[in-house]
Predict the 3D structure of the following.
Amino acid sequence: MAMLLPGIRKSTINGRKWIIHLLLILAILLIGFPLYYGFVISTQSLDEVIKVPQSLLPSGYLLENYVKVWNRIQMGRLLINSTIVAVVVGLGKISIAILSAFAIVFFDFRGKQVAFWMIFITLMLPVPVRIISTYQVVSTLGWVDTYAGLTIPLIASATATFLFRQFYITIPDELVDAAKIDGAGPLRFLWSILLPNSGANIAALFVVMFIYGWNQYLWPLMATNSDNMRVVVVGIASTVPTGTQLPEWNLVMAAAMMALLPPVLVVIFLQRWFVHGLLETEK
């Protein structure tokens, strides 16, 4: 009987592994099928899209659809605008969060906790809630149809400040004391010690904030009037007619597939740092 126990345990462990892998494969299929389906539609003609039953295999109109939608909505300009907005928003959020978290953790001043909670309360005031007042300020400053108007109202982030604060709290006091003994001032301590140790957190947050800036729709729609300043999400929405005309879903999906590429490349390029940053944040 004792001889059988190791074999039973081993088979139980192997069975659990098979179940876990099966669940992972099902999750991948569940998440990946809409992307595959969108790609298939982007390679078909409109007649093939509306055909019932619809084919789930790619067709031969890929190049035609992509070139057509690229020229129709000035896709190159839209991608450039979205990239600028996403990069500026991501770097701006991280820069402000680092400085605010640095001040809250390493400086003693009256009302420090009140200042932190005031920052944290801004989570209850996202852009859609204050969009009218924000637009009035941007319009008064003359920032409508400018990159400043598209990015500056979005660069403050209470979430990023909170995450950096939690990370800076884990910095040992001995490290701070050693930096003081070596004559390092606050800015030197920030530049030479904190920032190098924050690389994984910065990369992880940049991925999240880049995608956040890339997916913005409502604020760019209000803050821009000309087609030259439109972002890619607004451009894709403009390809869907609002009347009784049948939408050209093959072109819409072609535009969506092109819009997916920059965020996917950012995630792939920073994947290792992203995962490492999330693990460090949990600690």
Notes: The chain has 15 helices and no strands. The first helix runs from residue 4 to 42. The two ends are 43 Å apart (CA to CA).
